[in-house]
Amino acid sequence: MTAVGHNMGPRFKTVLTAMVVVVLTAIYVVGIFLLWDVFNVRDSLDGLMEKDLYAKEYSPDSSTSVDITFDGKQLTDAEELLLRDWFTYWYAGLGARKSENISRLYITQANSELFDELAFDYETSLATRCPLDLSFESCTLTLNVRRRHSVQKSDKIEIDLTLSGELGRRGIGRPTVIRSEQHFFVLNIENKKLRIEEHSSDAPVYLSTMHGLDSVLAANHYTRSDLNYTFFPKYTAPALEKLLQETDSLKLTPADISVYPTAEYNYDRSTAANAAITGFKTSGAFGEYDEDDANFISRCLFESGIPMDSQGGKYDQWKWYDDELNTERRKVGCSASWYERAAFYRYIRDNEGFGMAGCQTTTGGGEIGDIVQLMQDGEPIAEFMVTGVIAASDGTVKDYLLSNDRYASVSLMTLGRTEFRVLHIVGYNTANI
Question: From CA 263, how far away is CA 257, in angstroms rounded?
């Protein structure tokens, strides 16, 4: 018994020492957290880093000048400053074609930060891969605040705004125009500072980025709502790599003009393209539809001299009115092909005789005045008119400049869509040939 007791002595001392160390470590950790709150250690650290992280003097690495004007509903100074910073860093980065650090503008571990960083990296990468020089030294933006809502019993502020502006691209010769791009923000307070908790946009490249991310998540049996901030980087990096690989593999193939239909009359391509670039307005004559890009493109084609087609059954027509202009959105007055992307495609594909003559061509067979439809899962999700063709010295098409009701002179390659179709408009017929 004495020998056993003698052997247990050192083991007991070891266990006791370990317990004391654990208790002291716990007391130390708890003490640090208490000191952190009682003496505002976090705020003190924020104060030391104010110049680098939070002060107004903080500026993007890029020398691109971003001029921002606010319009619409009134925001507080803090809200306006935060949103001004976000758009300044974003467009300064695009101007220099390199990603800026926007993480400081978000609350800790906000998924939106990772979404936006992915979209930012993808958009700047697309700009560097474009055959044009898409950098710019300055841009002007107008942020129209349509809605500002304070969420009850919280510090959250919901803000809906539209972005309009001009980017003076170096390699295009005319500005890229943005018309009423939609953005939604949720702002919140963290450590006494206003930060971004959520952000989303209907910008084409943003939607392309999210679609690419969703496809990667789906392949791993997840959705965005399934994962938190800690695990998202595991999938955002592969998503960016996949998106860029798909973009790099995109080839624009030449047209086979031998399969083009004939037409009595060519149409005025320059007039149609100019209408798409300038975003013309016809007062009272045309209403708006959910797919208003298709409505807008039809207006541009009509502006160029192509007559409306009211012959045949309702699925064979391309028109806005019967005997008079229709401003009441009556189905009898407006054909689906005028304002629906899929119906417009069917009209171009199937129409014979009177009216517009056209066909689907190859990805590299577009000309100024032709139509590009961006596709997703076999359905058209956006429609543009070709307002510029970027070709190599041998005539091979490298990129298109596109315009619709929301954008003017935007590079196809920077929209992030590798699935699209090109509709060639040959002209029109005035007889049933």
Answer: 13
